[in-house]
Amino acid sequence: MFSLLRIAVNVATLRGHSGTLAQATAYDPDVPDASWSAAYLSGTVHRDEQPILLAVHDDDGEWQFLDGGVVDEEDGVAVHLAHVFEKYPDLRPLADLPEGWAAERDSVAGDWRRYRLTEE
């Protein structure tokens, strides 16, 4: 099983941040909540040290993009969801991933496998 990332984020701070992945963004009809929603990335994904192999859209509507390994919660980063889909266009097929679902792949070239999250 994978480890989910949980980061407390002040949305007002996120909206005003000047970092590349946290700048305000325009409405995207393919990802309706992307212009205001936060997404959480593992530090290794944010620094481009590892690819995104696991995407989670949890029951609370939060998104997480992880490398599939053990997550160091202290190293996680909150960004605007739209910037994740902009920077990683290979994730756009996951824009319709329902709340309470996850998708994973074995490699960047691999196909996404979707599944419903279960209670642990």
Fold blueprint:
Layout: H1 11-16, E1 38-41, H2 43-46, E2 54-57, E3 63-66, E4 77-80, H3 81-87, E5 101-104, E6 113-116
Parallel strand pairs: 1-3
Antiparallel strand pairs: 1-4, 2-3, 2-5, 5-6
Which percent range fits the helix content? 10-25%
Number of strands: 6
Based on secondary structure, the structural category is: alpha+beta
Report how far the terminal alpha carbons are from each other.
10 Å
Order of helices and strands: HEHEEEHEE
Strand content bin? 15-25%
Radius of gyration: 13 Å
Shape descriptor reads globular
Number of domains: 1
Mean pLDDT: 77
Quick one: biggest sheet? 6 strands, mixed
- Give the strand order, joined by hyphens, for the main sheet: 4-1-3-2-5-6
Uncertain residue ranges: 6-27
Total helices: the number is 3
Summarize the structure.
It contains three helices and six strands, in the order αβαβββαββ. With 120 residues, it is α+β, with helices and mostly antiparallel strands. It has one domain (11-110).
Could you walk me through the main structural features you see in this protein, from its secondary elements to its overall organization?
Residues 6-27 have low confidence and may be disordered. The termini are close together. The protein has 120 residues and is α+β, with helices and mostly antiparallel strands. The protein has one domain. It has a six-stranded mixed sheet. It is built from three helices and six strands; from the N terminus they run H-E-H-E-E-E-H-E-E.
